[in-house]
Design a protein that fits this description.
156 residues, 0% strand
Length: 156
């Protein structure tokens, strides 16, 4: 608990300096409290990497949906019934996530606290917009699953 308290205090100093989102907000979205376990002078880099973990996980899901070469049967059956509008929305989300991942690669090459802070701030703002689209697509996929279960009967 002491490490987390110190992380919050250190983060708040950087948040004021770089106008970053609150610790609570970032932690709820990206679980940045994991950084407390690391003793580091590169806190913002580690926070960026926490953010990137979530971005990458969501990105891999959309990659599987858009390029289903190794997708399981459930995903393949969902994709078969998706409308063009939803597929375009998924492509747009995937493109945005990919841009974020590419920007992070550059930060891994040359460390700059200011650049890390800008990335965290920008991604936090973009994530709020992306989240709404993600929720939309998720609802549509969930609805497709339930419609299929009713139509085919579910025996699981």
């Amino acid at each position: 608990m002491e490490k987390l308290k110190k992380l919050k205090e250190d983060y708040e100093k950087l948040a004021k300096q770089y106008r970053l989102p609150s610790f609570k907000e970032l932690n709820e979205e990206f679980e940045i409290e994991k950084v407390a376990e690391k003793e580091t002078e590169l806190m913002l880099r580690h926070i960026r990497r926490c953010i990137l973990e979530k971005i990458a996980a969501v990105s891999r899901f959309f990659e599987l949906m858009l390029n289903p070469t190794e997708a399981n049967l459930l995903i393949l059956s969902l994709l078969k019934d998706l409308n063009l509008e939803t597929k375009k929305k998924m492509e747009k989300i995937y493109r945005e996530l990919s841009y974020i991942e590419l920007a992070a690669v550059e930060l891994d090459l040359d460390y700059s606290e200011k650049s890390e802070a800008k990335f965290i701030s920008d991604v936090s703002k973009n994530w709020k917009k992306l989240k709404e689209s993600l929720k939309d697509v998720s609802k549509q996929l969930d609805n497709k699953i339930h419609v299929k279960e009713k139509a085919e009967g579910y025996f699981g």
